[in-house]
Amino acid sequence: MRAFTIDQADIARTVGDLLPKEPPWVLTLNHTNWKLGRAEINLLVLGVAYRGLAIPLFWKALPKAGNSNMHERIALMDRYFDTFPSNQWPSSWPIASSSGANG
């Protein structure tokens, strides 16, 4: 089986180039956790929702079951801000989150 690396920043920039610069899109911060056999699959995903479709921009596989914490969510947002400097996007974004309330 071949391995390859996906540059999430390249994917995010490509998606960003295709979207209008001003909303009606919404940033989403979602978390999903399930079991595949004995393996825990736990993903934290920052995406963009546009016209009923959610597109992942950045994601992190978390090495644990359960909710993400504030540090993990901030780290994902930092990757977003590193990829999209504030002068390229609106100064305030609508954000929808379902990542849990624990800190």
Strand order of the largest sheet: 3-2-1-4
Order of helices and strands: HEEEHE
Number of helices: 2
Q: Quaternary status of these chains? A: single chain
Please count the beta strands (DSSP E, at least 2 residues each).
4
State the major sheet: 4 strands, mixed
Tell me the helix content: 10-25%
Distance between the first and last residues' Cα: 39 Å
- Measured by DSSP, the beta-strand proportion falls in 25-35%
Low-confidence stretches: none
What structural class do the secondary elements suggest?
A: alpha+beta
Integer average pLDDT: 84
Structure description:
The protein is an alpha+beta fold and 103 residues long. The protein is built from 2 helices and 4 strands; from the N terminus they run αβββαβ. It has helices at 8-18, 70-83, and strands at 26-36, 39-50, 53-61, 95-97. Strands 3-2-1-4 form a 4-stranded mixed sheet. A hairpin with a 2-residue loop joins strand 2 (39-50) and strand 3. 14% of the residues are buried. The model has no long low-confidence stretch (mean pLDDT 84).
Topology:
Blueprint: H1 8-18, E1 26-36, E2 39-50, E3 53-61, H2 70-83, E4 95-97
Parallel strand pairs: 1-4
Antiparallel strand pairs: 1-2, 2-3
Short description:
This protein is of the alpha+beta class and 103 residues long. Helices cover 24% and strands 34% of the residues. The protein is built from two helices and four strands, in the order H-E-E-E-H-E.
